[in-house]
TrEMBL record:
The chain crosses the membrane at residues 20-40, 52-71, 509-528, 548-570, 582-600, 638-657, 669-687, 699-717. It is found in: Endomembrane system. This is Cellulose synthase-like protein G3. The keyword Kinase does not apply. The active site is at 138, 437.
Amino acid sequence: MAGSQRPPLHTQLLMPRAGINRAFALLYSCAILALLYHHFIDLLQSTSMVPIFLLLADSILAFMWVTAQAFRMYPTHRQVFIEHLEHYVKESDYPGLDVFICTADPYKEPPMGVVNTALSVMAYDYPIEKLSVYVSDDGGSKFTLFAFMEAARFAAHWLPYCRKNKVVERCPKAHFGSSNPSRFPETDQIKTMYESMRVRVENVIKRGSISHDYITKQGESEALSRWTDGFTPQNHPPVVQVLLEYGKDNDATGHGMPNLVYISREKNTDSPHNFKAGALNVLLRVSAIMTNAPVILTLDSDMYSNDPQTPLRALCYLLDPSMDPKLGYIQFPQVFHGINKNDIYGGEMRHSFEVHMPGMDGLAGPFHAGSGGFFRRRVFYGCPSETPEMNQGRQVSHSIKSREVLAMAHHVAGCKYENQTKWGRKMGFRYGTLVEDLYTSCLMQCEGWKSIYCNPKRPAFLGESPINLHDFLNQTMRWSVGLLEVAFSRYSPITFGVRSISLLSGLCFAHYTFWAIWGIPFTIYAFLPQLALLNSASIFPKISDPWFLLYVVLFLGAYGQDYLEFLLSGRPTQRWWNHQRAWIMRGLSSFTFGLVEYLLKYVGISTFGFNVTSKVVEEEQSKRYQKGIFEFGVPSPIFLPLTTAAIINLVAFLSGFAKACRQRSLEDVFLQMFLAGFAVVNCWPVYEAMAWRRDQGKLPLKITVISVVLAWALYSASSMAF
């Protein structure tokens, strides 16, 4: 069939809402300019500090709003047709695929969760001989290795079961735990095998030791013997263990199985390990020695495959001869399962994956989201013009278990290997930030690479979102610190915009990297108007003042746009409300703490550092989450800005209401009363956790007492100021 007659592999359309977005952005920008002009005039005519704070807060809000509109100028929708692949390439000519899965702590990221992720991708509808799965265990745990020894045995039955019955949900836990499970003749038998594996792995974790009865092969005992008394997560030699090798290990039906390799890179306290970026670079080097597939998929430990045809969707772009040769990677969205009905923490991150990603797709392409990215291997080695196209098949002909291959793999997994090399600077995932995913993909775009966003109807991957407030806020704080590190690196938003030849791309980059500055306006508006109200001071226009209407227009415009986007995406109103409340909570706690932590780190003061988000779910905590009850539980200082603001806003609202009743007028303080009341409604879960909850998820008394003291101190200081 001639090339011009071949059916398309994919289509691309500009979303209809683009025109409306542009018109709204123009009108709303005029209102913002009017507000800033009003603040500037007040600043010239006033002797107090209040206009300065209001101008600062609204200038930052204006900056973040303007940068957010860049995502809405060219929102793009794509569709792929995997049934047309046969017109372009034979299945035997598909490129090799190396899958990278990272885990760091067997107690916060249970090995069974990582095993489920690995099994789901090992069962892809993809040529077995071209598929390899590499697991990076940055916790250096023998329990994780044991779990994957068990997984390798179970895979011999799981893979043919999925292949024979055309199972769609190929994550065992999801398949067997489905509310409407598929039933096949072998289902009960395979489920029994899975449960037996799960019990053994969880027993090992619980006991802290591996029973000799669980070791069935000589090679397994030898591999586990490397964990001696001096072997610790922070100090140990490299471990590279080939658990399955195509051509040598067969499943229960005699078919080959994909390569499965466990890797724990060398660690010692004298060498920096560069967090997840360092682990991924070790996987890049080890996989290059063993299989050297030209396509790489990166996955988080909990982000299992939900669609066995996902690699074929990526190939619709990677193998299309009409695509830009500078296409570097295809990004799939992160979708989360187990989120409660109303998503009380805003965990689905709707803005990122339904507004920002499609918007960037119409520009230079989306950033990498840390998981679910299909990369051409050569993008990690430089600019498009500097890296030749790699061979589509396997380039390594010898056994990946050979002595030479394993020796070289251990060598490149050593902590000294990167010394005096370009790794982390010009090659691989880049170092210097906690958000290596966004930083690396930004630098790729600066080098000339492009990316595509693929968002199929059936989610390609499903992961876990935090189900308690502490983990949720800490995760956001860690991201905000990392984003500031990127913002003030040598690739600033301005540099990015110039290098990517797109002002709008630069604005998108700025919006992400300056996330933490949201904390400034949120803090100002959570405290300043309310403290003024407590001191009978009016700082906003009266109802009769024409400038009052401007505040109304700005508030309704911003919230109205957000609400309409939620409705159009099929979400209920309650989810929208919880999402905006979660954003306020982030602003007061996560972003504020993130900004402070970055500043402390910048001046050389020790900070909290990297912390893996726990994937362990307690039963009672899970029940409360499913009921929509906020989980506080721990006496963490990250709650203090939120709880202090809740107290001040409640007292200010009640005080203002009492004064308004006495004076029978809200003319002077309506906007301040509205802000306080709006905060009180949003803080209702905080008041419940403070006052009348008795479960383990309530707010600790220590935090409540400290918050009351801080609120009183702020009021005393404001009394002198006003």
